[in-house]
């Protein structure tokens, strides 16, 4: 298993990370525990979760995923020391008042969320604590344009960094990271950290896949020059790049039995449910078949071949999926196939951005 260093830290992780947001919604605890155990056996000892999980977010399942991981640690003494554990503090509410009231996220919000995560995870320290989405108003989760008139920011980045720094100083957090960030945000977090002697972010967790390579539009240069690593999430575009929706109609005509993008209306309304995203995914999926690969193999191997990606976050709902996904990262992709991928992008750009 290839191992990489995150940012300018001493945090060493495999190039595959196990995402857990389906645990507690699609995946019950017993099955989740089996996946966690097998993942560790395969060398994937990097687990990512968040306080708001399971997904789609509901008050009834808030914190469920962290609780499942915590119960696994409790049932498997000694395993916590073998795992690099990442979780996230939710940004401003975004219609989820069960997480916190108001616009969030004050230093007090960050501290309380961290304490809640530590309790549910049944651990004394979080290896990588990430801000799930910016406190600022930024185009994210399918929004395209920055709109200054919608700015509602109340907590300066410096204050957020100070709050995270206190958690690091207290030994509750080892390293910090960002998620769903912009070039400006990454630069400001790094600049202020260096100016004030505060913890430096080691990673950004952003969407990156064949139908969403928006990361390559400036954020890759920012991270490269500042020494910040990319944790790529949604490499299969919520299932679009598995090929399972290729024959099931369009848009809301997707078969709900096939996966969460079709089952959950809240997901379909985001970037992954757009018709152009489905259309482009079908082209990549056919390209995979034309080269003797499954769509899943192509999508995951693509991330493994890109210099921009430090570690790719995979989300699975079964042991079979876990085995298939891990093997895909070892597959070679020819220069000709990579050129064919770029040719599709040249026409269709990033429809799921």
UniProtKB/TrEMBL annotation:
InterPro entries found in the cross-reference section: AKR_Detox_Biosynth, NAD(P)_OxRdtase_dom_sf, NADP_OxRdtase_dom
SUPFAM superfamilies named among the record's database cross-references: NAD(P)-linked oxidoreductase
GO MF annotation: an example: oxidoreductase activity
Keywords carried by this UniProt record: Oxidoreductase
Family matches, as Pfam families: Aldo_ket_red
Domain NADP-dependent oxidoreductase span(s) in chain numbering: 16-345
Keyword Transferase (UniProt): no
Superkingdom of this protein's organism: Bacteria
Protein name from the UniProt record: Aldo/keto reductase
Annotated source species: Comamonas serinivorans
Source lineage: Bacteria, Pseudomonadati, Pseudomonadota, Betaproteobacteria, Burkholderiales
